[in-house]
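Input structure tokens:
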């Protein structure tokens, strides 16, 4: 039995190492490629031969990539703020207040999130243009929020529903109203859920491509996914692969930093409710 457990432990660790290699190797190879220039990018090297940062300098010199990063940051932060504020208040109402049609409303919110972006692209384009938000960051914030809110509301509703009702009843007996109950009682208990949903909403807004490509026209209003996609040459072999890899590494680092900073609350939020008793 001991030998069998040891064999299972070794197999599990080997499988974990294989999974980590599969997930991390593309990013590692992108870093290696970003440190090469010219025809070196077409040579297979698994270890950087030199620390050539010219591709990183070229990315910022040949186009307003810093402006593109700022656009993505502004849009993502705005989307996270809107999603958390509206999602938290909606989740409180759906989880704690009984009213007719609550289950139907929850199913409707879930159904909205099932539509792919391309299915509503034409209608969303007419809405953005009708509101005068075309080629504007406000249009991206509006469109991203529409697709982020259903997921945020659904997840936060599940978290609020699992909170002990005894805490709510004690606060009500002490004279707490709905807003005090939400902000001072529930909110401190919901930080892991807020961090989890906020980080996922940030990743969606940061990486979104289809709406950003359709609703923006000038380079000064584009976000980083579109800016990277438009780095092109005359043919496949003329594409600036070194610049593309450098830009990809640059836009990936903020996501890695956010996950590392909030990893404790992120894990707590993802595993909340998995074990009870």
């Amino acid at each position: 039995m001991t030998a069998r457990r040891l064999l299972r432990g070794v197999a599990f660790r080997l499988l974990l190492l294989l999974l980590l290699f599969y997930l991390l190797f593309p990013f590692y190879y992108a870093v290696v490629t970003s440190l090469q220039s010219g025809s070196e990018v077409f040579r297979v090297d698994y270890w950087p031969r030199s620390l050539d940062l010219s591709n990183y300098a070229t990315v910022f010199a040949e186009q307003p990539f810093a402006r593109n990063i700022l656009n993505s940051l502004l849009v993502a932060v705005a989307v996270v703020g809107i999603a958390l504020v509206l999602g938290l208040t909606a989740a409180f109402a759906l989880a704690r207040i009984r009213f007719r049609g609550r289950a139907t409303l929850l199913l409707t919110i879930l159904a909205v999130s099932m539509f792919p972006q391309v299915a509503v692209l034409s209608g969303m384009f007419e809405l953005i243009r009708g509101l005068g938000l075309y080629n504007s960051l406000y249009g991206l914030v509006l469109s991203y929020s529409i697709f982020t809110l259903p997921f945020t509301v659904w997840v936060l509703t599940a978290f609020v529903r699992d909170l002990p009702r005894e805490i709510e009843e004690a606060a009500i007996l002490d004279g707490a109203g709905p807003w005090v109950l939400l902000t001072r009682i529930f909110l401190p208990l919901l930080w892991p859920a807020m961090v989890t949903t906020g980080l996922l909403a940030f990743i969606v807004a940061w990486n979104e491509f289809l709406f950003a490509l359709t609703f923006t026209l000038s380079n000064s209003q584009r976000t980083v996914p579109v800016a990277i996609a438009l780095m092109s040459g005359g043919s496949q072999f003329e594409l600036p692969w070194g610049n593309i890899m450098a830009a990809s590494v640059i836009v990936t680092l903020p996501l890695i930093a956010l996950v590392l900073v909030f990893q404790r609350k992120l894990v707590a939020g993802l595993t909340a409710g998995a074990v009870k008793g």
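DSSP finds 13 helices and no strands in the chain. The longest helix spans residues 2-34.
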